[in-house]
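Re: the request from the purification team.
They wanted to know what the chain is likely to look like in 3D before they choose a buffer screen. I agreed to run a prediction and write the result into the notebook, where they can find it.
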Amino acid sequence: MQTNEQNPPRRGRPPKVVRSNADTKALLIATGLETLTEFGFSATGIDTILKKVGVPKGSFYHYFKSKDDFGLAVIDAYNDYFIAKLNRYLKQDDVPHLERLINFTQSAATGMQKYNFSRGCLIGNLNQELNHLSAEFKTKLLHSYEQWQQKVQQCIEGAQEQKLVSKHIDAAQISEFFWVGWEGAVMRAKLVKNSQPLMLYTEMFLRALLR
């Protein structure tokens, strides 16, 4: 009687993971996004990223000219992700405009809680490292904030059209105020390891908006 026997596992080095160039670059950026959001840019060495991804250092420089070049690519990826998130919440046609903003802040609190408040906002974290970053980093950070402010501004202008917010409110100015305060609330939430600062800030911002 014949029996089917499985071949015993081969010893030696584990097989290499076959990836396309695009997949490898995307994985480096995704891993960088997770790592830099938690530990910061200056404190994170390239070797840490490479070890997680399983890519040799020589290959890294095939995709990025330098660590700075890599960091800038990570910022772009984070900004794309965050704008998509803002659109998901702030452009909900079946939800009143101010509720959209509340839904966004609640989602952010849930996201921070998921990682035990060890991660926050990559852009906000990089603000803490400005003395060690190039001018190109600073330009990208400002550009991200401008885009985010525009999304909140559009939401507030929609609330004004619905007569939920006074027309006397400067939508552009208060949208900038939202992000200035929100980033501080995120940093405090990381410090105290709970979402209370985020909820407090949301409540006080809405009170100021509706006053």
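For the purification team: Confidence is low (pLDDT under 50) at residues 1-6, 8-18.
Please add any questions underneath this entry.
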